[in-house]
Hints:
The protein has about 100 residues and is mostly helical. Helix content is about 70%, strand content about 0%. It has helices at about 10-20, 25-35, 35-45, 50-60, 65-85, 85-99. α1 (about 10-20) crosses α3 (about 35-45), α2 crosses α3 (about 35-45) and α4 crosses α5.
Amino acid sequence: xxxxxxxxxxxxxxxxxxxxxxxxxxxxxxxxxxxxxxxxxxxxxxxxxxxxxxxxxxxxxxxxxxxxxxxxxxxxxxxxxxxxxxxxxxxxxxxxxxx
Length: 99
């Protein structure tokens, strides 16, 4: 399994840049997204994941749909989880080679 050495960017970082480019501050953006300021801050810091519901809302706000946001979140999560269970994955790959 080929993996990247550097973690994919958390979508919250990209969202922070998008909000800045749109001239949106946290409170108005949170209100538009129907979430709390605290939740939006956690997403922007990369401390919270973007859910499917939030991806739909962010996609509507940014005009680019939910898939970009969900794909970025999935890539980010998969990268970290692959490292957390690296040994388990290696065992499965070795067992599959004998199958």
